[in-house]
Specification:
The chain is mostly helical. The chain contains 9 helices and 2 strands, in the order αββαααααααα. The protein has a two-stranded antiparallel ribbon with strand order 1-2. The chain is elongated, with a radius of gyration of 23 Å.
């Protein structure tokens, strides 16, 4: 993904900048220039937020290290250490916020088109768009939870999510009806799909995206 590659590139750029921050000696040890540190740390903190989110250990630990910085080199090394750990995890594929955001936006576009089609009495078009968005969203969510979806039908993905307790309650009951509607849509059995069916898929997909992407 282009955005993912851009994040990796930016991590590398900021890592290379750490050695260029100006240092000076004081009576209490080596210090890092305050202006240089503020510019670098602002960029780094924003990058970590994009890559992992504000509630991640990476972001919280970086913020804590930043708040403990009073100008000394050893304090900067703590900040840098959190930054490098974040860089390593993202390069290892453990950053999900960016992908989830992009996926959510893409699926949101599909749902928006489905709603528009349904409002224009184009039920069949709306059904295909809504079902495609839901199936892809379910599969991406399953993968993010460590579930393999290779070669699996939507019903298999739903069952795998349920078996791991990742869906439940009212959501579980609603989700049980979705594969049938999806199969009707993908096999052009239009007479078996009602506008209400399509509306339920759209509504469920919107809620699912809000909760998981």
């Amino acid at each position: 993904m282009k955005g993912h590659d851009s994040i990796i590139k930016r991590f590398a750029e900021l890592e290379s900048q750490t050695s260029a921050l100006r240092r000076s000696r004081s009576d209490f040890g080596m210090c890092v220039d305050s202006g240089d540190f503020q510019r670098w740390s602002t960029n780094a903190q924003n990058l970590i937020k994009i890559a992992f989110g504000e509630n991640s250990p990476h972001y919280e630990n970086f913020k804590a290290a930043y708040n403990s910085f009073h100008g000394y080199e050893y304090e900067f090394e703590n900040v840098k250490g959190v930054f490098l750990a974040s860089k390593s995890d993202f390069e290892g594929g453990f950053g999900t916020t960016l992908e989830a955001l992009v996926s959510g936006e893409i699926f949101g576009d599909f749902v928006g088109l489905a709603k528009e089609a349904l409002s224009n009495d184009k039920k069949d078009v709306a059904a295909v768009l809504a079902c495609a968005a839901l199936e892809d969203a379910l599969k991406r969510y399953a993968v993010s939870q460590g579930i393999s979806v290779d070669g699996k039908e939507m019903t298999d993905v739903v069952n795998a999510l349920k078996s791991k307790g990742l869906v439940g309650g009212a959501q579980k009951s609603l989700l049980d009806t979705m594969p049938k509607i999806r199969n009707f849509a993908m096999h052009a059995d239009w007479s078996k799909i009602t506008p209400q069916d399509v509306g339920s898929v759209i509504g469920f997909t919107e809620q699912f995206l809000l909760q998981n992407f």
